[in-house]
Protein 1
Amino acid sequence: MNVWIEFFLSNLDMIYIVILALFLGVEVISAVPTILHTPLMSGANAIHGVVIIGSIIALALAPEDNYLLLGLGFAAVVLGTLNVVGGFVVTDRMLEMFKEKKKQ
Amino acid sequence: MIENADAAKVFLEVAYLLAALSFVFGLKMMSHPKTARQGNAVAAAGMGIAILATIVFLLLEGLMPITNLGLIIAGLGIGSIAGTWAARKVPMTAMPQMVSLFNGMGGACVALISLVEVYHFHPETWDLYAYLEYGSILLGTLIGSISFSGSIIAWGKLEGKISDKWARIKGINLLNALLLLVTLSYGFYIWLNGDLDFVKVVIFFALAVLYGITFVLPIGGADMPVVISLLNSFTGTAAAFAGFAYDNMAMIIGGILVGSAGTLLTILMTRAMNRSLMNVLLGAIVGGGAKSAEEGEKNIKEVTPQDAGIMLAYANKVIFVPGYGLAVAQAQHALHELEKLLEERGVEVKYAIHPVAGRMPGHMNVLLAEADVPYDKLLELEQANQEFPTTDVVVIIGANDVVNPAAEQDPSSPIYGMPILQAYKAKNVIVIKRSMRPGYAGIDNPLFYMDNTRMLFADAKKAIEEIIKAIQEL
């Protein structure tokens, strides 16, 4: 039991951050109109591509002679980049259509 | 006086803080039409900062051999070029499956970096922290893998490469539950034993990939949007777990934000279909309308494009109901032409958009915006339903389930209870459809047999162009 109490007390910051971030995620998109559901999902999809940071770290720290880790890390960087870049570009293409119409 | 290493760390953490803020503001801006595009750019900029800062930090710390840096830059380059190319090339109609594919890539990325972390993870003692970190690694692997393979299957279903026949296999839900149980128990066993054997974790990874496949296979193609949204929030959650394992604030915040926002979005979507998430995941909608098909001979009445043109030209008020058929035929521009032509003749024209028309909520709006249709002509479900009774002609273009009166009248229908566009209340209904084949959900539509309904069997674009020609010749 003591272990848990100590864990709780020494990680209070993180516990607060996690709970508040959970509510923030819900709050921040709660007023979204239906027309933006698809672009918003696509934008959120690009944001979880933040795992690319993890993949960069994983590849950076892989020993030069460990081809397994180098391979896994490299694949992860490529996949993560696809998620991020593809995600943002696709979202931009969708949202481009919502720009103000030019008067003809 | 701070040490050099501390300075680098401060630089990194400030960059992550900026990135986390940009995600929050980006998402917020993306939920308003006016600021949406800038919101996306803000989030992208934050991501760029985080990536750059990570690389610079690793260099400053001297943690990265030069070959690895080369590989990172190569990976970023390949991913950027391929990602941009794919995202620019994809037609608007195929957007949903593209999002699904990118989501799958993200899921795979989480799973891979979690596997790498198993390799590096050697706690001195198995205390609470070690167990929690290992738990995060395993959960990242599990959820990331499910998201990966599930997204690929969802992509295949939307592309029409994978059929819905899997849903008809008896007891597939039970099999799935068993597979999930096996996967979870195995993971739990590895975790409790603090077993860091790479092969065992790879087996766990493989089980999760397999479960992702069987999880999505039996779900009806019409429900894929909900599934994609759910898997999107899965990847977010997995990213957060990977963030714990890597002790990385940007990953934790970004992951949690997407995890919770994605879950809300998923719930909003199921609500638009008046169903629960469990119902979507377990009760696959496929061909449940067998009963109505047995009700004997039913008559349909066809109409030629010329007659349809005349009906429209002399109407006072016309409402278009676009569906996936419009998207497939790329008929949005032609439809906008028809709209302008009718307006010139003094006909009031509007569009009725069902929340789940097309393959994703908002899909139709994006397509019509592409064709320069003004927003104020787009009616949402409730507004449209108020206007149908006073409408002379409703033209349904490649939509089916969203106008199916069975959802209101037939309690045995699998879509019973889903809010629909009450097009049947209009004086006349013209349905442009390629054939009598039932819609995506595989359910027969009584609207087609009603007295005031006329069918126009043709490709949507061709039909609309012929109607335009007919009106011009009047």
Protein 2
Amino acid sequence: MDELIDKLKGEIIEQLNLEDLKKEDIDNDGPLFGEGLGLDSIDALELIVLLEKNYGIKVANPADGKKIFQSVRTMAQYIQDNKK
Amino acid sequence: MAAPNYITAYAKIRSGKVILNGETGYSANADEPAADFVKAAYKHYELNYPKFYKMDQLCRLAFVCSELLLRANKVTANYATEDIAIIVANNAASLEIDTEHQSTIADADNYFPSPAVFVYTLPNILIGEIAIRNSIKGENTFFIFDTFDPRFMNSYIHSMLNTGRAKCCIAGWVDFYENKYDAFLYTVEQTNNGLGIAHTEEQLNNLYK
Amino acid sequence: MSSKVYVTGIGIISAIGNNVAETLDSFNKMHSGVGTLEHIISRHQADTPVAEVKASNAELAVMAGFPKGHEDTRTALLGTIAAKEAVKSAGITDMKEFRTGIISATSVGGMGMTENLWMQYLDTEQSGPWLKFIESHECGDSTEAIADSLGIRDYLSTISTACSSSANSIMFGARMIKQGLLDRVVVGGVDSLSKFTINGFSTLMILSKEQCKPFDANRKGLNLGEGAGFIVIESEKAAKGKTIFCELTGYGNANDAYHQTASSPDGAGAYLAMEKAFNISGLKPADIDYINAHGTGTEINDLSEGTALDRMFDKKVPMISSTKAFTGHTLGACGGIEAVFSILAIKNNMVYPNLNLVTPMPELSFKPVTELKKDQKINNVLSNSFGFGGNTSALIFSRVKE
């Protein structure tokens, strides 16, 4: 799990063009949206693309993203549970 | 007799140079790749806006140019946000990012179009970025022309200010395509602030050159 | 200088008809143009309904009156057909009689042609007749094609502000008349469907897999559409003695300054645009008889627009509908197409239904009209158009007082 979280942080930084951020700046359990990293609705859609591109997981309803993308940990958990 | 208006500040970014109110600021070799140069200018002036990195090249160029312009002349401090208009034109529209989006949908075996790319496939998004950054809510339009048209810009902005549709206008030309870039933004006001250059076709031509 | 701007001609082509008469017929039959994509090969063909103009490019070229063998982009063809109808309906036969201009608007321009020829363009080893279409990509090209086919020489301009583009072209044309720069202007816009927009909007996850349901509590997104809508506006001098449809009394534009694509929760930009339109027209919200809403059917637009309307009209919103379930969202063309609908609402004293509405939105005070209403007294119509980049526009059309 920790390995996946670490890998995921790198992928998020790349996919969302968070050039000013380093992996250690992202808290495993900190919120990704709003107060946290300040991501917005387009970033959420971009994370859905990331899930499909890198892990083959399709999220059909963007509203599901709210739960999945609460933190890097919840995202990693979702990948672990749904990866084929 | 229509009221005179004034060009109160201007910023230009082209050929590896930032020019602010006529003075050369940050510069690099003219052959420095456009994307690198704009990013270096962003860092040099410590503009500090993480969303910058999410923008496409056209918006990045417009963003840096507008930030420097508004640093030189902070119109948002002097006017209500509804009274500031943004009127910009260019030649290539959003062609630079359009081709990027196109390439992500052209290959059926590697089909991962990016929403973050698609949202920039409209030239007026650059106006949106400037508006969001500065909470500017006035009139805004994006025109497509062959080249910067001082005659058109001059008459359009005169009429906008003289008919009360806006009290101040951020105007200009922002074009980016295939490593060629050209940004020229200026503020026009009814009072003789800042540079106080008469807002005429001739002066626009001189400043743009 | 002209203190008034009169509408003397209208022209339209969309999924519900190739001209004004067919369009009215579709409204009378409550016939939506949303269906299966036929003229583009796309991975989204089976699962994403669209509102396509029911004609091939070859058929459109005949309608546009282009000489045999003359190829052009679908955007130029659709634009020419609607603009020609508008000029004809205005009874204009001599372009030289007055200073005449055209201001067109488009968001994707010649994209449909570009994406078909893309691979050929990239292959620099080859050259062929397709290369002539490279220039047709840019947004101004369709405007030039339309101007050429109409013989308009005095003034030409192209606006690209996403989905409010053609509302802005109408506004710009009106100002040129008021300032005495032109006597009459063909204004409006055109966009054709393309893989570019279908795939792009699909990534934003706002394309409905079923017919769109604007202002429904269970709306699932928008349907893309295509088409063109143009109107002819004239100064008092040029319009003298002519049949006049109505007057363009108000227009306003603002920026929402909230997000690149999403409207602000309170619809600040929409409110400002409407407020400006009211100020110019001298009308009050209570004077409006019908609102043709932007109403795309996305979760965010309809809530934002509805909230702004409730505030503007102090929760006494008049008859209102979105016609997007008929035509789909035609992007850069929608302001022109819906201007034609607004003008026809005044001319025929009718109000169009907001199709597919089952459950009104609990957040809003109003319920859109769900049936075709005739024999109404429609004197003033408000038409909203909002675009990505926060660009918001509102137009007001008014019956000319006898």
Protein 3
Amino acid sequence: MTLRLQSAWLLEAVSDMATIDSVFFPFIHRFSALNWLSRRDFALSVNAYSVSQAMLLRAWLDGSYGAFSDRNLQKFNQQIKNPLELSMNPFRAWKDRLFDRQQLDYLFYWREAAFEIEEEAQREIFWAAVYQIMSYWLSNRACEVEVVCQPDEIMGLMLNRHAEFIRGREARVSVTRLGLDELAPADTCLTVFPLVFSDEENAEMTLQVVFDAWQNGHDDLEQSRRQIRMHLRKYLIDFSKPDDYYTITRLVANSKIAALVWSGLDLPPALYEQELVRPLQKALAGRYTKSQLLMKAVDRTCDAYDYLLLFS
Amino acid sequence: MLITLFNAVLIVLITWLAYLYFDLKEKATPAKERYSQLVRGVASVVDRLEGYDKEHSREIAELSERIGVACGLKDEQLQSLNAAAMLHDLGELLLPRDLVKSSKKLEGDELELLRTHTLLGELHLKAQIEELDEVPSLIRWHHERWDGLGYPDNLKGEEIPLAARIIALADAISAMNAHRGYRKRQYAGDADVIAEVKRLSGMQFDPQLVKTWLGIGCPLSGVKK
């Protein structure tokens, strides 16, 4: 699921069509992809595909939540001096498969400690920092690179990074967590659909699976994987059903502009034009009069291009 | 007899085409070299204006190439990597000088403005070269981080093209190791730079690239010692 959302490119491309004051994302693959947009002065509505993703979007994008307080940092980011009892750890099945013993101790401690944080927004920031820490641990583990930072040090670093990340946010962010069938079209200037073509598991999806299980307090990765796949499948674009764009046409109904973004790999641009762009133009012909396809090269040796299809 | 004659003609034709291809390729090489020299020239002007005490862009391009070769990049990818590494900070020329050369830690609007140099560099180059060349995109993404907390697009992990990840690593190593007229060297010794790169593996840098860099002896520049 490689998807590069180039927000500055998107806004530049639509700037001739309208003044953008509101943007709606019926789906987003990863919270940080919306960082640039959430720094602009407009209303940003995002629908998350899972409960844990909704929490990450709130914690990392909504500046009104503020940063994690120093008082809470001192209270809840303690160093574990002696190893915890492994048999009590609900994530013990992950030992040496995903995390080492010390990391598992901290994952157990951080999850439990967070329940004692009184303010929900602060708790979500603390948990959201764990997402980044898991990403750091898992990616180093996958490459067999030794992790140098101690867990409490990395937690401090991540919360510091979070404070820097949310500084200067201007967008009024609203996050929903609704199934695609329940989601109503938003009255926004611009609706953006990031397109995904495959639910093949990559490192980011594995991280989302592990985090989802951790946040729910169990070690059953298959359960989380099934849930996430079930949600994601609703957003998958299937080339073999070129006329099946009902969801897209329904959800852009109240927007002045619709934008579809995707990243291609191993398929030449002409094929995307034939198999995706033309059927979409046909599907949206009743709603919009103009369409424009923009492309950017990423790596020509493997036909990697980023695409932006606009309707106005 | 007819088939034999046809084959003979075909062999002559293929030989002639092969000769034509290699002849043209040979003639094209100096043009490529002239292009490289031109890019190096532009990059050295950028370095001078940025206040570096040495050929910063060339150093990054050479270090990037060493890492790129170790990663098994193809010739075409190495060419794009070299050009993007040479011109990665081009966008800074379009920003106010006092902002770029500021020795204080930038915050707020000033920091946001400085960060636009990635977009400005891409836009400026795109207007000058073929639309579907990847070099402008690599310049756009040379400040992305492996953990998704970089800029401008907050790409994460392998969403960031390998060449852009390489430039990001080489640029950071060079920055840790360099001093500008208005800013001292960040790290005292080579061992400190290596320790910092290891510390940031999986956060700022691709762990696989860090491993590759460690594997080729942790070069701090493109020149082999």
